[in-house]
Amino acid sequence: MTRATDTDLAPHELRILVAVADAGGFSAGAEALGLTQSAVSHSVRGSERKIGTVLFERGRSGARPTPAGEKAVAHARRTLRLLDVLVAEARGAARSEATQPQGPLRIAAFRSTALHLLPPVLERLRARCPGIEPQVRIVRELGRGTAGEVADGRSDLAIATLDGAHLPAGLVASGLFEESYSLVHPAGHPAPRSLPLVDWVENCGSYTRAWWGAQDWIPRATIEAEDDGAVLSLVSGGHGMAIMPALSLIGATDSIEITDLGPDRPTRRVGYVTTPELAGSAVVRALVRELRAAGSAI
């Protein structure tokens, strides 16, 4: 039998590390957990001693994780989540092999998938598995994006763009569908390619950059909107044209015309990202089943 060692961190120590990181300080973390500040400080010092490095930078304004602390907190979140899954699935197995999966399911998604892909997926998921409690976070697909939420232990599964993206170490990904880009412009405009470009910061990622750079007719954006919804509104109002993926165009009004960009049009691959451990959990498997059904219909 494997014995605990002096370097093992107990679940309560992991919870304290996460609370301090989330709250931004020892006092706030202690308050969130219903503990004294001295108890929290003592626990963090003990964790640092066991790991052998400083996990938080202390200052008058609070405490923030060091690079080592960021790694430790991310692993702490993921470990605590696995403990929750362990309890839920063991209890389910004890009740009945046919018991439906239950418990929270944390999902990170970028805006267009949260608006247009997830609602029918979650509706079917709730109908089949009413015990699952979806919790959706909308995350901008920039930098580490939605996949970073999984890597940091804040989400169980992320809907992410996969082409050209650097997947954080230790995660697994699988494609769901490929999405085409189109030229979007005010309906009836005689020369839409002559219009100024309306864009948003999440657009033109690595999956479209090569194509984008080869198009000498595309000007530099003169208007940069907050998100794809604002882009559609601006194009509808006659302020320019845009190049947008299919999901962003669901529900576009008649004031907008969508023109195919031809056989060499850019595309992006949308899929899901999770951890190897959670990929086998009942709640994640149930969601993936519904996502695959929805992806095959796009």
Give the helix/strand layout:
Blueprint lengths: L10 H13 L2 H8 L3 H15 L4 E4 L2 E4 L1 H29 L7 E7 L1 H6 L1 H11 L3 E7 L6 H7 L5 E5 L10 E15 L11 E3 L5 H8 L9 E3 L2 H9 L5 E4 L10 E5 L6 E8 L1 H4 L2 H15 L2
Parallel strand pairs: 3-4, 3-5, 7-8
Antiparallel strand pairs: 1-2, 5-11, 6-9, 6-10, 6-11
For the secondary structure, the number of strands is 11
Oligomer: single chain
Tell the overall outline: globular
CATH superfamily of the largest domain: Periplasmic binding protein-like II
Mean pLDDT: 92
Structural class: alpha/beta
Instruction: Report the sheet with the most strands, covering strand number, pairing sense and barrel closure.
Output: 7 strands, mixed
Question: If you had to describe this structure to a student in words, what would you say it looks like?
Answer:
Strand 1 and strand 2 form a beta hairpin. Strands 3, 4, 5, 6, 9, 10 and 11 form a seven-stranded mixed sheet that branches. The protein has a two-stranded antiparallel ribbon with strand order 1-2. A two-stranded parallel sheet has the order 7-8. The longest helix has 29 residues, at 67-95. It has helices at residues 11-23, 26-33, 37-51, 67-95, 111-116, 118-128, 145-151, 206-213, 228-236, 276-279, 282-296, and strands at 56-59, 62-65, 103-109, 132-138, 157-161, 172-186, 198-200, 223-225, 242-245, 256-260, 267-274. The protein has three domains: 1-99, Arc Repressor Mutant, subunit A; 100-177 and 269-296, 3-Layer(aba) Sandwich (D-Maltodextrin-Binding Protein, domain 2), CATH 3.40.190; 180-265, Periplasmic binding protein-like II (D-Maltodextrin-Binding Protein, domain 2, 3-Layer(aba) Sandwich). The radius of gyration is 23 Å and the shape is globular. The protein starts with 10 loop residues before the first helix and ends with a helix. With 298 residues, it is of the alpha/beta class. It has eleven helices and eleven strands. The model has no long low-confidence stretch (mean pLDDT 92).
